[in-house]
Amino acid sequence: MESVRAFACPVCGSFTPFESRHCPNCLVELGLHVPTRTMVTTSSNTAVIDGRTWSACTKRADLGCNWLVPEDQDLSGRGRCLADSLIRREPEADDTIAVEKLVSTGIALRRLIYQLIDIGLPVDPYWRKDGGLAFDLLSSYSAGERVVIGHAGGG
């Protein structure tokens, strides 16, 4: 698996994996603040950074996301972090195999989006820009259904 930058716990300084929601050493609650590319301590899934309140992504429970979202985020992001907001279509809840695989897919998606941001490439979501980036994470498709991954525009 591709690696991303190493993170340090802001409390004890120990190595903290990219996906961590708690420090493996001191067990403090953590969240990833993407704008500063740092792990920050959270309390009840929230943190105040430079006077602005950040909350856990709404996909924290479903997809294990540890990214933080600004509380004043516009409604089009649906309370999701940038990476998880790019998921346009997900499997139905009764498709248990696909839902189970969505967790590892979500991790890979967050790694990809983080790396794109880290190297300075723009990530324009489909809900913000016509033809923006989107992912349809479905396990199966109807016969004859046209599926385009990574592009929201028609045609």
What does the secondary structure layout of this molecule look like, with pairings?
Elements: E1 7-8, E2 15-16, E3 30-33, E4 38-41, E5 46-49, E6 52-56, H1 60-63, E7 68-70, H2 82-85, E8 87-89, H3 96-118, E9 135-136
Parallel strand pairs: 8-9
Antiparallel strand pairs: 1-2, 3-4, 5-6, 6-7
Protein name: Zinc-ribbon domain-containing protein
Pfam families: Zn_ribbon_DZR_6
Domain Zinc-ribbon: 7-86
Give the fraction of residues assigned to helices: 10-25%
Q: Domain count, please report it.
A: 1
Gyration radius, to the nearest Å?
16 Å
N- and C-termini, Cα separation:
34 Å
Mean pLDDT: 84
Which structural class fits the helix and strand makeup? alpha+beta
SSE topology string = EEEEEEHEHEHE
Q: Report the portion of residues in β strands.
A: 15-25%
Low-confidence stretches: 147-155
Could you please describe the fold and organization of this structure?
- The chain has 155 residues and is an alpha+beta fold.
- The protein has one domain (7-136).
- It is built from three helices and nine strands.
- It has helices spanning 60-63, 82-85, 96-118; strands spanning 7-8, 15-16, 30-33, 38-41, 46-49, 52-56, 68-70, 87-89, 135-136.
- It has a three-stranded antiparallel beta sheet, with no helix packed on it.
- The longest helix has 23 residues, at 96-118.
- Mean pLDDT is 84; it is low at 147-155.
- This is Zinc-ribbon domain-containing protein.
- Pfam families: Zn_ribbon_DZR_6 (PF10005).
- InterPro entries: Zinc-ribbon_6_bact (IPR011201).
- Residues 7-86 form the Zinc-ribbon domain.
- It comes from Mycobacterium bourgelatii.
